[in-house]
Write the structure tokens for this entry.
Amino acid sequence: MSSYALELLDGSHNRAGFFSGLESVDRYLRETARGHLEKGISVTRVLVETNARTPKPVLGYFSLSCISIEAKEWPGAPKGLPRQAVSAVLLGRLAVAQSAQGRGIGSMLLATARQLARETIVRSGGVGLVADAANEEVVEFYAKYGFLRVTPKGLRMFLPTASLEGGMEISIK
Ligand SMILES: CC(C)(COP(=O)(O)OP(=O)(O)OC[C@H]1O[C@@H](n2cnc3c(N)ncnc32)[C@H](O)[C@@H]1OP(=O)(O)O)[C@@H](O)C(=O)NCCC(=O)NCCS
């Protein structure tokens, strides 16, 4: 049975060989994620098999950053928020390699992102976890895990801090 490790993205990972089926998230990993990590713009973590040799194939990845949002009117946002911007954690990207999809890796990565977001919010404050779905299908993926649409037809999704507390049952098949 394989075992997996979640690592901070670095030069040992095969970014060029990652294909999720969604060009924008593949390009982000290939061209942007390392620079963003070095500059402190966002943090990308990748899932690899523990015994993988360099360049390690990337099974999946996600990126987190801290953002400011005006969430007063958002569904699920705490009552009485100020009109000004407040803090939240952004799940900027989440993707699984096409060859590894459908095995529970996406939900496992999402559960880990939730956990990291919760730790950030406990330490520094924040109203929840925000995710930008790439399309309607992905909206359904996030909705399955409690994310709410910010606007009726928009692709921005929100998981309020109170919902971050709930656990997710997950396993990799
Ligand atoms: C969306 C994505 C991350 C899901 O990863 P995955 O490892 O295949 O998902 P899992 O195996 O953990 O599936 C978890 C559940 O979500 C559902 N699901 C998977 N992909 C889905 C999708 N694209 N849309 C809706 N639901 C989806 C599965 O059916 C499963 O439901 P079940 O537990 O009822 O069977 C992956 O398909 C992917 O990387 N897609 C391309 C990139 C992308 O769209 N990223 C998201 C936006 S940045």
